Amino acid sequence: MSDTDSRAGVDLPAPADQAPADEPRPRRGRRSALWWTPVALVLVAAVLAVGAALGSVFDGSPGEGSVDVGFARDMSEHHAQAVQMAMIEFDRGSDPTSRSVAQDIALTQQREIGVMSAWLSGWGRTQTVSGPPMRWMGGTDAAGMTDGGATGGHDMHDMPGMGTTADPDDTARMPGMATPAELRRLASSSGRDLDVQFLTLMIHHHRGGLAMAQYAARHGEQDRTRSLARAMVLNQSIEIDQMQNDLVRLGAPRA
């Protein structure tokens, strides 16, 4: 899935409130209602994108090889898959709580994709770049980062799909991302089986994203990069705990 395709044509339910693009804050909890207003979401995203792009002009543009640019590109791609998985669960999952979690993830991460896309445009950088991802994390951090807060004490290569096989169908592009085979199984599932698969895959996905966000929070050049990365760490850590509890509630093993 291309970076451009992953950001276009996603119909999402509108959020109850909206934080400014450069001042992300933790969500207040799960939304009790599941509803859709895609036109309003598009309008809000457009306003956020304009604001973020204008802010970039005043902050200056980070370099092509900077943490800020690399983080915006790779996290946008990482987020796009999370939105894809969340929409599958929201559409066909049987557990209302898991569907509500999926809605929150889709709303938040699609919004963040829009913010980071606007940054890249404002910095005069392309949305995507050829070559392997995560080079901005620097050497060993990108290849085999171990961070107890991000991965639960597991090396990144031990996460599902990472470096376990030479078959592209069973290999994830970045830590935590689902493999093509896992995405097909998720898309063909329904009911409780879908709920459990979604929760398990999304926990792994969040762990991989946390490692990236933690690195950007420490090493980003711009305040806006560090601020957004810190918000991602907080929100996704909370969501991991929620989803682990949901797996137990559904009678499934913790991820």
From TrEMBL:
Pfam families: DUF305 (PF03713). Residues 11-21 have a biased composition (Low complexity). The keyword Transmembrane helix applies. PANTHER family: SLL0788 PROTEIN. It comes from Frankia canadensis. The keyword Transmembrane applies. Keywords: Membrane, Transmembrane, Transmembrane helix. The chain crosses the membrane at residues 33-58. This is DUF305 domain-containing protein. Residues 68-245 form the DUF305 domain. It comes from the Bacteria. Residues 1-29 are annotated as: Disordered. Gene3D superfamilies: 1.20.1260.10.
